[in-house]
Structures are given as C-alpha cells and as structure tokens.
Amino acid sequence: MTEAPAQTPLIDEDLSQDLATAALALARRFNAGATLWVVSPQWEPHAHHVAVEFVHPVIMGKRALPSVALVEPDPVAQCRVATRPGDVIIAVASADQPQVLDVMRRAPAWGADTIWIGSGPRPPAGGADHTLWVDSGDPMVPATGRFVLMYHLLWELTHVCFEHPGLLTPDAAECTETGCVTCSDEGRLGEVVLPPATAMDTALVRTATGDESVDVTVLGDVAPGDLVLVHGGAAISRVATATEAAR
C-alpha cells in the first residue's frame, strides 16, 4: 500500500509569518489614521477586491477601514497625488511590473508603507516594506483562490490585531532608526517637486515628513520627479528611479 503524496499547504510557514508581520504593521497604520491605496496595473479586479475587503467588511461588527483602488492608467501619478505621510500602498503585481516598481521606489519619499502581493520571481530585496508572495512559476496563480486567500487573510489578521489594542502602538524598544552622530539627521529619500529658480535658490523636495526646501548645489540641475538622498538639509546624491535602475 502506497502513501498518498503530501499536499503543498496553501499558506506555508514563511508566508504565514510574512502575513502576520504585514497585518500588524497595517493595523498600526490604520490605527494612526492611514488610508490604504491599492494598485494593480496588470489585474485591475484584484485592486477593487482588496479595497472592498477593507472598506466593506463581511463580518458583523468589524470596522470599515479607508481603502481605495487606484485604477487610472498612471498609478504613479495617482499615488503621488493621493498618498499622505502615514498611508499604506498595496500593490498586487508581478515583480517586473514597471509602474509598480516605480511606485515602490518612490513611496518612502511620500511617507507611505508598502505591501507587495504577487507570485513568480520575487521583487528585489527591499523592494517593499512587506512582501506577500506565492513562490510558483505557474502564470495562472493570480487567477486562483490560493492567491486571493493571501489578501483575505491579510484583512482578517489586521482585524485580529484590532482585538488586541496593546499591539497597536509600537513599544519604544522597537524603534531601531539611527541617525548621523554629528547632526542627528539621517539620509532620507526625497522626490523633487520644484527645481530651484536660480543657482542661489533651494529646491522644493517632498520627503516622508512633508515638503522641504533643500540645497541641491552638489547635484547641479534637478527636475521634477527626480529622486534624491537628503541629509542635513542638502541633497547629497541622486537615487535612480525604477526605470533608470532597469537600464
């Protein structure tokens, strides 16, 4: 008598841990007043599905959470306008989707946390704050219940966190940010909004804390949309956009 082959779990241990971590971070952001923005340039129905999961809960007594699907042709421009510091962007897409790569690259300058849901080859390390991924080469995975199950569980686990209010505020011990020992500042990603009018002026740069006047003398000419590293009130280097990095 032969034994039946073991079935592959729909959600393995690694993905379970990733879901729990992402759900806690998302619950904390919602608790602090965040709006969730969802993009899926390849699979628009997924964007609508994720958004409606959060804004229209199917379980009695669960709170409705602010969530919007952004489905216009240019998700980068939509996210740029819609996102406020403290918000969250979820992308449902493959790892090579160029618009999503660009959104994820720019999101830290907008002050947004990011969650990337997909399958197949994984995004580059650090491509998003949280990655929820089905490691399968089957191109039909995004059309399966296994794929949808990921964001159903993300929604449910987020509400589990709300049932434990003590989890919703990070402990001081969890803060691991470090800064320059000389000026107490850290290198922060910024997106140029307006270049300087003259060589003596500063540029208007958007960072996670809002718009700032930044000295770009070291870099020379900059243009709207350029990504720069800001430290001590000055742009000290350029940061490649997703399009530039892919060249």
Describe this protein's structure.
- Helix content is about 30%, strand content about 20%.
- The chain is of the alpha/beta class.
- A hairpin with a 2-residue loop joins strand 7 (about 205) and strand 8.
- It is built from 6 helices and 10 strands; from the N terminus they run αβαβαβαββαβββββα.
- The protein folds into 2 domains: about 15-165, 3-Layer(aba) Sandwich (Rossmann fold), CATH 3.40.50; about 190-245, SH3 type barrels (Roll).
- A 5-stranded parallel β-sheet has the order 2-1-3-4-5, with helices on both faces. A 5-stranded antiparallel β-sheet has the order 8-7-6-9-10.
Secondary structure category: alpha/beta
**How far apart are the termini?**
56 Å
The strand count comes to 10
Global shape: globular
- Beta-strand portion reads 15-25%
Count of separate structural domains: 2
- The neighbouring-strand order within the major sheet is 2-1-3-4-5
**CATH architectural arrangement of the largest domain:** 3-Layer(aba) Sandwich
List the helices and strands and how they pair.
Blueprint lengths: L12 H19 L4 E4 L4 H12 L11 E3 L5 H8 L5 E5 L5 H13 L2 E7 L10 E5 L10 H18 L25 E7 L8 E5 L2 E5 L12 E5 L2 E6 L2 H5 L1
Parallel strand pairs: 1-2, 1-3, 3-4, 4-5
Antiparallel strand pairs: 6-7, 6-9, 7-8, 9-10
Protein name: HupF/HypC family protein
GO molecular function: carbohydrate derivative binding
Descriptive terms for the model:
247 residues; alpha/beta; Rossmann fold; SH3 type barrels; five-stranded parallel beta sheet; five-stranded antiparallel beta sheet
Short overview:
With 247 residues, this protein is α/β, with parallel strands linked by helices. It has helices spanning 13-31, 44-55, 75-82, 98-110, 145-162, 242-246, and strands at residues 36-39, 67-69, 88-92, 113-119, 130-134, 188-194, 203-207, 210-214, 227-231, 234-239.
